[in-house]
Specification:
Elements (H helix, E strand, L loop, with lengths): L12 H9 L3 H12 L9 H7 L2 H18 L5 H5 L7 H32 L11 H12 L13 H16 L1 E5 L12 E7 L5 E10 L10 E6 L15 E8 L12 H18 L21 H10 L2 H6 L4 H10 L4 H20 L8 H12 L15 H4 L9 H19 L4 H16 L7 H9 L6 H6 L18
Parallel strand pairs: 3-5
Antiparallel strand pairs: 1-2, 2-3, 4-5
Helix pairs in contact: 1-2, 1-7, 6-7, 6-13, 9-10, 10-16, 13-14, 17-18
Length: 492
């Protein structure tokens, strides 16, 4: 009913919205504690543990099993085993997290002080608590006139964003996405099909479906990329290899009849990131099908193309191509780095927890929850508190197929920021230089797929190993002077 009461699922985006927008501190507290206790049952709840095997017990069980598997195969721990198939070594991953921690913690503390000051100036009484942080950050963003990443923008109509995205792909990589509706079967009304054509040869290198609108059949949010048909030399016809067909799926809300759907900045970023992942599949020329596209690419390098396109999404010149004014584009570009200290500190916290959970050989000596509490004290200025039980709901670490891999997205962002800075160095307004560099990226990194070591591919493109400094600059963070040169990759 309009007047409530309402029931919110603790892990949903609606609960996040409560933390950002509810003016009632008690409501925010309830939402925060519900999320902090997600999947947790206390040690006193013996009957619950015995009957349901709570996540508290499952965390211990999973970590013990992974440790046993690793030692039986001759490794010191799970992380020692997992990093044998990564671009980074465990030492390099830890060094990256340390560099990001050193740069983000002072910035996050300064940002927290800003929020406390704003709360006091606004008449907020009492102690500033963990469940107040998201609310006052949203109020500060509004006060500074920085657009929200999550609010649909009238200047970001889907057809205009798609036109700008396709134009950028043509400009960077020398391929055209030509509308080919009716040339391939579709599974629902509104699904579009494009042929991906290389400009220099005129050859169709693949096909792309776009299924962008919200529907009951879709069980997840955001944008994602699936491969409908992979490249194969053996399964082709007429002596030609089978070319890949990829689909980008989204959950954009349909506009009212006669109107166009408006996207938020976060949705624009998500669409660009999904397109980057699609191009990784479509622009491969790897002859070995089992290593074509993203197959065989290390998990800490596979996100590079998507993260690179995502960085272009908030570039003012790209935003203006969607129809935004120069002022709107400049304001929107600031949204991506607003309070990036806190964002980075939280990413580092989770990555370090994941890494230490899987590099500890004795969880009886220091429990997973003690590890999480210790790391929080070292990485974030606002401690989650005794109610936080991160490991119980840490799906990406404990339920995914990549334990000790939480750092991987940060590593991919380091690579992407370094690559994006190369484009900035030649000048984004210089079409010829940008095309030359884009074609080099296509040849060095996209084309080989998993058939080439990612560090070798990066070195060919950039002329050196990757450096964390570009990501720090992008996020407005400063590396302490004692931090050294900032290189994060080295030859194995």
């Amino acid at each position: 009913e309009e007047g409530g009461p309402w029931l919110f699922t603790a892990g949903s985006e609606a609960t996040v919205a409560l933390l950002r927008h509810s003016t009632d501190p008690e409501v925010r507290k309830s939402a925060y504690l519900a999320r902090a206790r997600l999947g947790w049952a206390s040690d006193e709840d013996r009957e619950f543990h015995e009957e349901f095997e709570s996540n508290t017990m499952m965390v211990y069980r999973l970590l013990r099993m992974r440790q046993d598997w690793a030692t039986q195969l001759g490794y010191a721990n799970w992380a020692d085993m997992a990093f044998r198939a990564r671009m980074a070594t465990e030492k390099q991953a830890s060094s990256l997290l340390k560099a990001l921690q050193d740069a983000s913690l002072p910035a996050a503390q300064q940002e927290l002080d800003e929020l406390r000051t704003l709360a006091q100036q606004s008449g907020r009484d009492g102690e500033f608590m963990a469940w107040d942080e998201a609310f006052w950050r949203e109020r500060l963003r509004e006060k500074q006139g920085i657009p929200s990443l999550d609010t649909p923008h009238a200047g970001l109509q889907l057809p205009n964003v798609l036109e700008g995205l396709l134009g950028l792909i043509e400009k960077l990589f020398g391929v055209q996405l030509k509308v080919a509706d009716g040339e391939a079967p579709i599974w629902a009304q509104g699904v579009r099909f494009f042929r991906v054509v290389d400009q220099s040869s005129g050859f169709a290198v693949g096909g792309l479906y776009m299924d962008l609108f919200k529907a009951e059949r879709k069980t997840r949010g955001g944008f994602w990329t699936d491969v409908a048909m992979r490249y194969s030399r053996q399964l082709g016809t007429k002596r030609l290899s089978r070319r890949p067909v990829v689909q980008i799926v989204g959950d954009v809300a349909q506009a009212a009849k006669g109107g166009e759907a408006n996207l938020s900045l976060a949705q624009v970023q998500g669409l660009f990131r999904a397109m980057g992942a699609a191009l990784q599949e479509l622009l491969t020329d790897q002859e070995e099908g089992l290593m074509a596209g993203s197959r065989g690419v290390e998990i800490d390098a596979v996100g590079l193309p998507g993260r690179l396109l995502e960085m272009f999404a908030l570039e003012p010149s790209v935003l203006e191509s969607f129809g935004l004014t120069s002022g709107e584009a400049a304001a929107a570009a600031l949204a991506g780095s607003f309070h990036s200290g806190a964002q980075t500190a939280e990413e580092v916290r989770l990555a370090r927890v994941d890494l230490e959970l899987h590099s500890s050989s004795d969880i009886e000596r220091e429990s997973p929850f003690d590890i999480a509490s210790r790391i929080a004290a070292e990485t974030v200025p606002m401690l989650p508190g005794a109610e936080d039980h991160t490991p119980c709901a840490f799906e990406s670490s404990l339920s995914s197929g990549h334990p000790a891999g939480q750092y991987a997205d940060l590593w991919a962002q380091v690579l992407a920021a370094d690559v994006f800075e190369a484009f900035q160095e030649v000048g984004l307004s210089d079409a010829r230089a940008v095309r030359d560099l884009g074609l080099r990226f296509r040849t060095s990194i996209l084309a080989p797929g998993g058939g080439r070591a990612p560090l070798d591919a990066f070195r060919e493109f950039r002329g050196r190993i990757p450096r964390v400094a570009a990501l720090l600059r992008r996020r407005g963070l400063r590396r302490p002077q004692a931090g050294g040169g900032g290189a994060v990759g080295a030859a194995r």
